[in-house]
Every structure is written in C-alpha cells, then in structure tokens.
C-alpha cells in the first residue's frame, strides 16, 4: 500500500546535517557559532512541519533568524549634530584604531619584552606616545576610564587624608555619579572651600594643613557658572605646596583654538599641576580610557597603588588609544572642524534625493560638542528638515539613522556622518514614504 503521507511536505524536512553543510549556513556558523545556528535550523524545520514554510525555504529562514551583527549592539548613523554622543558610544574610532584592535585581538606582547623574554611595562608603546604628544609630562599612566583615573589619583595621594576642592567644582559627572561620592569611596575626606560661585586663594590657604593629601581642581565640563564668579587658576594652587590634581575631563592634550575655554593637559602641566586626569573617548577621539599625566614621582606613586591593578586598561583599549594618539586625526576632530559650506552642499544633495512627499528643506542650524565638553559652544551647521515623525521611523531602519527633533521637525545633520556614508542616509530616508 502507498504511504498516505508520502506527499506531505513535512516528511521532506531537510536533515540538519544537510542544512549545516550549505555554504551560506556554514559561513553563518563561522560568525555566530554552531549551537546558535543549529537552534535557528531547528526553528525553521519546525515551521515546515507546521506548514508555515516549504522545505525549500529552510536555509533562507535559518539565515533570516540570525542577527545581522555579532553582538546585540547595533551600528547607527549619528545625524544628531552631537559630536560626542554618550548614548551612542561617544567617540567613533578611527580606521587606524579599529585595525589596531584587530591586531591586538590575539596573543600580543602587551607585558613582554621580546628581546629579553622578560616581563615589561604594560602598554609601554602607548605611554611613550603620550609623552611625545605632551612633552611637559614626565610620566604617563592609562586606566580603564576617566572616573577611574580620578579615583585612583586621589586614592593614592590622599587616602586617609583630605582632598581640598572648591564647592563650585563639586559636580555630577553623569548617570547619577557625583564627585563627593567618588572621593568618599577612596577613603579620603573632602574638604570643601569657598562657595558655589566664588572661591579665592585665601579659601584654599585657610583649609590646608598636615591632613591635606592633595588639592583637586575639576573642570565643570557640562555646565557653566556665569555672573558674579571667581575661581583660582592652577598656577596659584600649585604655589600652595600640596600636589594639585587637575581633572580636565574631555581629554584635550593641547590647546585647540575652536575650544578656547576647554582645559588641556599641556597647559595644566605647564601651570604647575602635579597630575592631570582625562578621558580618552571624548575630545581625544579614542576608546574608553582614563589618562594620567604628570610628575614622575607622583605618577609612579599612583601606578604602584594596589587599586591600579583593578582599574587597568585591557590590551584592546591600549592598542586603540595608541593608534589614536600616533595616527591621523580621529573622526571626532574632523567632525568638530567640519566646514559649514561643505555641510550645506551635502545637505542640498540629500534634500534633492529625498522623496518629494516628505517636503524636505534645508535649514541653518548648529551642532554641539557633547559628552560634557565645551558647554555653551555651538558649531555652525546645516540640516535637512523632514516631518517630525520621520525621526522615529529612521531609528527603526535596517541601518538606523539617529536624527534629532527640534520645534516639531526632524532634523538630519550630516556633521557626524562620513561623506562616503551620505548614500546610506539617503537610502534610509527613501524607505520612509
């Protein structure tokens, strides 16, 4: 008797080993791993048994069920005009930094001297590069983020003692983390001087004593106090005796005429700061890292503290930061200094390629530094203006475009879009109608 189920497509479900041998599926295994792909295969096979798929669709269904990227992080196109955007990863890495990460992904001589076969200073190439960029520093140290650099410095220099700081610099650095809480975690005691808007050299002098571990100066970063104000420059603080730790925040190694009010490491050290702490993933344009530069004795004291081991930077960050310091200008630098006329030309081309039903126009606008850098500074720019609801729809495209909403319009600012990616923004917009 013929099998009554012989024509049932569920009896023709491809075997798992046959599906896994398909060239496209085999490539997916190299990206996502065998177990993850097998799970997707099993789901597709069950859909065939349920009649939702044909046997010929199993491979395509398997591939469609796998994520486009190797992690849950989704690459986005930053069309907000905010250069250092914390919510999308702050500074985008340069090509050189990305290549350096790939080179460092395997075994590397991160703490090994290949000539002698002996252990060597971790990240020595990066440290030497930082000292070449900032000759006023006698020594350098790199840890895993800017807050860690500040905590490590104050722990090593003032644990069990007092950290003298102006009340006008008792800042919150983001996500609810406040300077008083960070310093308290080090075992040091905060000695607040002056007032929110005015602190004088006499305020510091009155607070100094045998219990003083260091004087801390913190750049306010993401806010400004204007009007009846006074603060003490590093030069005067350095004359008081205790070491001055200057947290400059955004990672500017030398002055930039575009950012006249942003402190930089070179100027702070020349003014007498014993130690400067900064972030690597903001104005410097590198990976998340904390940088300490300063006098050799103070930096060595910090390096030898037990906490330094807990906050050290990994080999990937060291490699990316070295490539950032030694290589061509990082994307952040190019975005900050973007030519407004060129931005307008690019916006005109984008608007011309936009479907007419979206009523695209170009408008003059401004970008900002972001990431707590240069508060109040605006960067002249241009944007393509679209209906407000386009912002949400652009975020859900296969390659999300992050625009901003202003006064009821969706603004697509190309400042932080590489010119060779303009077509990707145009393609995303073309899918909106």
From TrEMBL:
GO cellular component: cytoplasm
Gene encoding the protein: selA
Descriptive protein name: L-seryl-tRNA(Sec) selenium transferase
PANTHER family in the cross-refs: L-SERYL-TRNA(SEC) SELENIUM TRANSFERASE (PTHR32328:SF0)
Record field: catalytic activity: L-seryl-tRNA(Sec) + selenophosphate + H(+) = L-selenocysteinyl-tRNA(Sec) + phosphate
Modified residues (N6-(pyridoxal phosphate)lysine): 282
Physiological role: Converts seryl-tRNA(Sec) to selenocysteinyl-tRNA(Sec) required for selenoprotein biosynthesis.
Transmembrane segments: none
InterPro entries reported for this sequence: PyrdxlP-dep_Trfase (IPR015424), PyrdxlP-dep_Trfase_major (IPR015421), SelA-like (IPR018319), SelA_trans (IPR004534), SelA_trans_N_dom (IPR025862)
Gene Ontology BP, a term: selenocysteine incorporation
